[in-house]
UniProtKB/TrEMBL annotation:
<dbReference type="InterPro" id="IPR035451">
    <property type="entry name" value="Ada-like_dom_sf"/>
</dbReference>
<dbReference type="GO" id="GO:0006281">
    <property type="term" value="P:DNA repair"/>
</dbReference>
<dbReference type="GO" id="GO:0008168">
    <property type="term" value="F:methyltransferase activity"/>
</dbReference>
<keyword id="KW-0010">Activator</keyword>
<dbReference type="GO" id="GO:0008270">
    <property type="term" value="F:zinc ion binding"/>
</dbReference>
<dbReference type="InterPro" id="IPR004026">
    <property type="entry name" value="Ada_DNA_repair_Zn-bd"/>
</dbReference>
<feature type="domain" description="Ada DNA repair metal-binding">
    <location>
        <begin position="23"/>
        <end position="75"/>
    </location>
</feature>
<dbReference type="Pfam" id="PF02805">
    <property type="entry name" value="Ada_Zn_binding"/>
</dbReference>
<dbReference type="GO" id="GO:0003677">
    <property type="term" value="F:DNA binding"/>
</dbReference>
<dbReference type="GO" id="GO:0006355">
    <property type="term" value="P:regulation of DNA-templated transcription"/>
</dbReference>
<protein>
    <recommendedName>
        <fullName>Ada DNA repair metal-binding domain-containing protein</fullName>
    </recommendedName>
</protein>
Length: 91
């Protein structure tokens, strides 16, 4: 049995992979995070999220596809993303 998984590539397009994804994401929100993310699990439990769920092999691929890190399960990565996009205040 050769199992295949549907992942999203750096170009944002789906492809079949012999290896499962290590990160999940939400297509509409352009967010990615760990598969055990508390926020994602809660959204799934409440009936949302699933229709727009996507998976990535790694973080680099998720970022290349235009997704940002989840603030709940990846706070340090999210802070780096946010700081890189926000101009310094003051001055």
């Amino acid at each position: 049995m050769n199992r295949r998984w549907k992942l999203i590539g750096a170009d944002g397009k789906a492809y079949e992979s012999p290896v499962p994804g290590h990160f999940g994401g939400h297509r509409k929100g352009k967010i990615y995070g760990r598969l055990d993310c508390r926020a994602a699990r809660q959204a799934i439990a409440h009936g949302g999220y699933v229709a727009h769920r996507v998976f990535f092999l790694n973080e680099e691929t998720a970022r290349a596809a235009g997704y940002r890190a989840c603030a709940v399960c990846m706070p340090a990565e999210h802070a780096r993303w946010k700081n890189s996009r926000t101009p310094p205040r003051g001055r």
